[in-house]
């Protein structure tokens, strides 16, 4: 449904990661190589990045295809950042909520993206609305499955969960309520990246002394790219990457999912 990418490391122009690579996110908007669902990601795009000395990221988002934005190439050429999260979108309902539906979503220091879809949305996740404060539901940035999944993750982060715990618990909760959901999630706070591989492709490239990239698919043919197994939680910093298997949720608890407490 989408392609996305996150990076933490040494300061780099946005373009080195997004527009310059032969098969970068820019090209993936019309010619992805490993996309399993959908063919063209033309229903919006966005990039969030962190400026030096400011922990709160900036965002640039548009409702149309990335190739139609004549200003983006200039922005990507001159803006440098030590961390970013970017996405190109293939919407389930084209045009719904326009720019507000384009990742990355943001709150405080966090940036978030969802590559996938929740079958039966919104009815399939109705049972999970009770776990969110009414204000969180009313302030959702868009009326789609990705924004709701982000609200679930954010509620856990605000309650004190680590990024890894919040992402893992949310994926298992949503997958139990909506079997068949595809939940490849990306989260960064500018210092680390947390991601899940659940139903679609995910890769990472760790370059010692330079940084770590996590992406839906490789942006070049560097043999150091590593594929993340399905049903896996990834936690990455500039220096290392940790992979942890995620267990398939029990379907007999789907009607009343419970949150596991992490250590």
TrEMBL record:
PROSITE patterns, A to Z: GATASE_TYPE_2 (PS51278)
A GO molecular function term, named singly, is: hydrolase activity
Q: Which reaction does it catalyse?
A: gamma-L-glutamyl-hercynylcysteine S-oxide + H2O = S-(hercyn-2-yl)-L-cysteine S-oxide + L-glutamate
Question: What Gene3D superfamilies does UniProt report for this protein, alphabetically?
Answer: Glutamine Phosphoribosylpyrophosphate, subunit 1, domain 1 (3.60.20.10)
Identify the Pfam families for this entry: GATase_4
| Superkingdom assignment | Bacteria
Q: In its keyword annotation, does this UniProt entry include Amino-acid biosynthesis?
A: no
| Polar residues: bias regions | 252-263
What's the EC number here? 3.5.1.118
Q: What class of enzyme is it?
A: hydrolase
The residues covered by the Glutamine amidotransferase type-2 domain are 2-263
Establish whether keyword Hydrolase is in the entry: yes
From the UniProt record, give the pathway where this protein acts.
Answer: Amino-acid biosynthesis; ergothioneine biosynthesis
Role this protein plays = Catalyzes the hydrolysis of the gamma-glutamyl amide bond of hercynyl-gamma-L-glutamyl-L-cysteine sulfoxide to produce hercynylcysteine sulfoxide, a step in the biosynthesis pathway of ergothioneine.
- PANTHER family (alphabetical): GAMMA-GLUTAMYL-HERCYNYLCYSTEINE SULFOXIDE HYDROLASE, GLUTAMINE AMIDOTRANSFERASE DUG3-RELATED
Kindly provide the name given to this protein in its UniProt entry.
Gamma-glutamyl-hercynylcysteine sulfoxide hydrolase
The upper taxonomy is: Bacteria, Bacillati, Actinomycetota, Actinomycetes, Kitasatosporales
Q: Which gene encodes it?
A: egtC
């Amino acid at each position: 449904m989408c392609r996305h990418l996150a990076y933490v490391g040494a300061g780099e122009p946005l373009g080195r990661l997004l527009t310059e690579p032969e098969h970068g996110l820019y090209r993936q908007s019309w010619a992805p190589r490993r996309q399993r669902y959908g063919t063209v990601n033309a229903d919006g795009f966005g990039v969030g990045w962190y400026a030096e000395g400011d922990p709160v990221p900036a965002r640039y988002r548009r409702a149309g295809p990335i190739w139609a934005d004549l200003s983006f190439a200039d922005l990507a050429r001159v803006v440098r950042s030590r961390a970013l999260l970017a996405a190109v979108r293939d919407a389930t309902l084209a045009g719904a909520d326009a720019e507000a539906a384009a990742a990355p979503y943001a709150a405080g220091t966090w940036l978030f993206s969802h590559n996938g879809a929740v079958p039966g949305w919104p009815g399939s996740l109705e049972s999970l609305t009770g776990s969110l404060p009414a204000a969180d539901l009313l302030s959702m940035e868009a009326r789609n499955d990705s924004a709701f999944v982000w609200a679930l993750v954010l509620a856990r982060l605000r309650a004190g969960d680590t990024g890894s715990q919040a992402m893992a618990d949310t994926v298992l909760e949503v997958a139990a309520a909506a079997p068949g959901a595809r939940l490849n999630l990306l989260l960064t706070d500018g210092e680390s990246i947390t991601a899940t591989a659940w139903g679609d492709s995910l890769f990472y490239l760790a370059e010692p002394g330079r940084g770590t990239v996590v992406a839906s698919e490789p942006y070049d043919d560097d043999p150091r790219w590593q594929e993340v197994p399905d049903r896996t939680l990834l936690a990455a910093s500039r220096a290392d990457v940790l992979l942890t298997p995620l267990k398939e949720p029990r379907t007999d608890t789907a009607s009343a999912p419970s949150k596991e407490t992490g250590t």
